[in-house]
Amino acid sequence: MFRVIDRRAAAGLLLTLGLTATACSTGQESVSGAPSVAPVDGRISITYLQKQGDQEYFVGEAAGAKSKAAELGVDLKVVNLGNDANKTVSEVQSAIARKTNGVIVVVPDPAVGPQVVQTARDARIALLTSDDQVCATGPDPAKCAKSDLVPRIGFSGAQMGGEVGRRAADEYRKAGWNAADTRIVSAWKQDVTVCGDRVRAAKEAFDAVVPGVRVIDVATDNTPTGAQDKVAATVTANPGVKHWVVWGCNDENVQGGVTALQNAGVGPEDIDGVGLGAYLACKDWSGGRPSGMKAALFINGRDVGALAVQTMYDRLKNNKEMPAEAFASTTMVDAATWKSAGVTCN
């Protein structure tokens, strides 16, 4: 779990509210409006379903959700879905059976989105997503009409990716590398829309500063070991490369990539890894040894969990319309600044 210090928590949660989705021309009910959900008079019950609930970021997210629920007097149940898409639907059904008033979900696989949305609609309970997008009408949120996207709390993928790409470019120029013997590893789970947003933005930002460096897209499962295995194969297939830039959807991808490179004999001075999360990057820095992890974007799951519960509470108690999206702020950190930025490294 990780958190920011109190003064940052007080000032750091800057929200960017998207336009509220409206009903589309086909006459379908607006997802974000959820007009069929009645306000709750008594005590509110919320269920928070998370993929990969043992991952550092999601542990922090759950802690933030629980803290906010206690503050608001809300009954909150947090469920770890792991990577089981089928469990997502069964846990939504279980939540309905427990008479929950609202469900917040981070889906392991966006393909279950339409079934989750329909199940919630049939039960007339409020639905909100955090982190990853969910489409009400199809398995791929990237191809979804905006009016069919479930309201989401999280971070802006484009903004985060842009910051990662710019920092990676800064480190590249500082090192004095050239494009001919450098490759970029871009690692992410390729069916997760927000991951695609992040890595595309990273590439665009990097190219704007340092054009011409070849990017190798590496499909992973968003875990350190999964990324390590795939990047190890990539390194083997590219024996002439001297310098490596590594970015990905999260800290897990970058740490896995950096580990694979170092295991292959690539020195930290020849690795430009920029993480996304900082909860694993900080472990490399805490030992004081040189690391290929040059920086990481600090994203605080506690803020997202707290904001998700607050948003659901406002919908259920005060009938306040959910925003299409609400974003928490981020901070770039490195070996010299992560402690002062408030990153807690467990």
TrEMBL record:
One of its GO terms (cellular component) is outer membrane-bounded periplasmic space. It is found in: Cell envelope. Its main location: other. GO terms for biological process: L-arabinose transmembrane transport. GO terms for molecular function: carbohydrate binding. This is Periplasmic binding protein domain-containing protein. It comes from the Bacteria. Residues 50-319 form the Periplasmic binding protein domain. Belongs to the bacterial solute-binding protein 2 family. The keyword Kinase does not apply. The keyword Signal applies. It comes from Kitasatospora cheerisanensis KCTC 2395.
